[in-house]
Amino acid sequence: MHKKSVEIWVGLFMVVAIAALFFLSMQVSSLNKFSVDSGYTIEASFENVGGLKVRSPVSVSGVKVGRVEAISYDMENFEARVTLLIDNKYDAFPEDTSASIFTSGLLGEQYISLEPGGSDEVLKSGDQIKLVQSAVILEQLIGQFLFSKADE
Amino acid sequence: MLSKVQQLGRSTISVLERLGRGFLFFIQLIAALPNVVTRAPLLVQQLYSIGVLSFLIIFVSGLFVGMVLGLQGYYTLIDFGAEESLGVMVSLSLVRELGPVVTALLFAGRAGSALTAEIGLMKATEQLSGMEMMAVDPIKRIVAPRFWAGVISMPLLAAIFSAIGVVGGYIVGVGLLGIDAGAFWSQMQSKVDLTEDILNGVIKSIVFGVVVSWIAVYEGYDAIPTSEGVSRATTRTVVHSALAVLALDFMLTALMFGE
User: Fold this and answer.
1) What domain count does chain B have?
2) Which of A45, A68, A121, B10 has a beta carbon 3.0–4.6 Å from A79's, enabling a disulfide?
3) Domain of A21?
4) Which of B102, B84, B90 is nearest to B197 (CA)?
């Protein structure tokens, strides 16, 4: 094999391999998509976070605006404290915005949905969301349903 | 009775000796890295015969493995109405497991066996001792470029395998079975993590590349210099590489993905 053509083939091999790595990181994983690096954090306390995890999405009207940064347990008021990292693009949510934990689909993962209120004051970094709705626990719902049936 | 014990002891000692020689050999290969870098043409030649010539088998196998994953995953997922998750299933299985492992197995069969046979035959025909006579170190000149070419080629081939596999899953899922293309990609992108999944897959393939190339060149260099010895060494390369890759894969998976 000629020396020059060997080098050309090796060069082409490198190009294809790097293209494959590029494809994997850009198209298959979410590098080019929404990634919050610079954002501001707001907090919310839930009675029960259910299956919510760190990195779970935070969305408004179905549009992803941030992700869950941390989940911890607050020993003062005995509630779960969730820190949300919101992209700087979305920096004008009203102060009386409410947060709920929903499930995408019947068996899907859980996410936080924000619903903007009507206040003129704006949520700032470190603020606390006051209106919250905990995760729906299927077992509790079934239990309540059975109790209400038993009363009849 | 005592002779049986002696036999057991002898085989244990010889296994340990082989392992020890193998590790010393490995250290020599690592130490030869500066020589490999300064004599790039030797490395390029080996990258051609190890990397470029393995490209076709990796490309075709990746495509078909991805297509089979797409087909089988679809039949399972359709029962739960979750066929949109096909992209996640295909890409995660490829990037985390099948890409590095299947590439390493194919690489051991395609390139590793050839390396062993080549080096073993050089030893059998006394080319290596001839080099030593001319004060040319055969490890630096012959073995190290082949080893390092294998180490470099393996992660690149694994990346090609995974990328082509995802395309194969796309062809079957979206092209033949009619899954929505947007859901296929967007679910994949939201579930596959760059460091957690893709980087760990690349680390796996680098480890496999080192192990398979090391086994291949060592078996060749350590082969009994007869035609039978070389044929045995070639068989051992493929068998030992496959076992090492599968066992290491379990350990790496437990380390990386277990919480």
Assistant:
1) 1
2) A45
3) 1-33
4) B90
